[in-house]
Amino acid sequence: MSITENLNQIKSEIPDYVDLVAVSKTKPAGDIQEAYDAGQRLFGENKARETEDKYDELPKDIAWHFIGHLQRNKVKYIAPFVELIHSLDSPRLAKEINKRAKNEERSIKCLLQLHISGEETKFGFDREEALEFLSSEKFSNMKNIEIAGAMGMALHTDDATILRKQFTELRKFYEELKSEFPAAKHLSMGMTNDYQVAIDEGSNMIRLGSSIFGERHYD
Ligand SMILES: *Cc1c(COP(=O)(O)O)cnc(C)c1O
């Protein structure tokens, strides 16, 4: 199936309130243009320089979302234009995003990435760390970051019981967040492998790559 057919198929299956982020990392501009021509406007990338290059080359009404771990020394490349950073995963990164956003005289929307998969290696806050950070004085001085919701990645598994448990944990955190931050309206959870379960568990933003663009090839 083509990119256009994949997109149309997925959009016909998901509820209207769910935002679809087309994860175009590693894919060439031509693939993104095809999705754009099919009406897609939200794209997700996980390398800052690659995002900047694609931003320069492609139509300016694309909303670029940053979805992977963001190194602090790379924030500057995306700060002028990024629409949403899904992966705010530490206070030090927040400090840098705030600084770069201020330089650009803008505010940058961020999702707090919560660590839900139980794996040691995955980035993100624990619930307690996140709440502590949000109530800190440090954070209250970060005027150029807007907390726009929560994001998480479940364990890569087909076991729906595990997925539901991890997504439920994230949804509860999101509800807590929303009660404090009215602008926190996005719950970014669900990828190709698990988005149906994620939507069942309350997701309103899914990040799909391979089901739209096909398998990725890394060299
Ligand atoms: C690559 C990636 C995705 C998309 O993965 P697929 O399995 O191809 O849908 C979603 N979220 C994040 C954070 C990613 O890095």
Order of adjacent strands in the largest pleated sheet: 7-6-5-4-3-2-1-8
Main sheet summary? 8 strands, parallel
By CATH, the topology is: TIM Barrel
Multimeric state: single chain
Radius of gyration: 17 Å
CATH level 1 class label: Alpha Beta
Portion in beta strands: 15-25%
Portion of residues in helices?
40-55%
| Average pLDDT score | 96
Unique ligands:
pyridoxal-5'-phosphate
Q: What global shape is seen?
A: globular
Distance between the termini: 24 Å
Number of helices: 10
How would you portray this structure in words?
The structure is a single chain. The chain is of the alpha/beta class. The chain has one domain: Alpha-Beta Barrel (TIM Barrel), CATH 3.20.20. 41% of the residues lie in helices and 18% in strands. The protein has ten helices and eight strands. It has an eight-stranded parallel beta sheet with strand order 7-6-5-4-3-2-1-8. The radius of gyration is 17 Å and the shape is globular. The mean pLDDT is 96. Pyridoxal-5'-phosphate binds at residues 23, 25, 46, 67-68, 153, 191-193, 207-211.
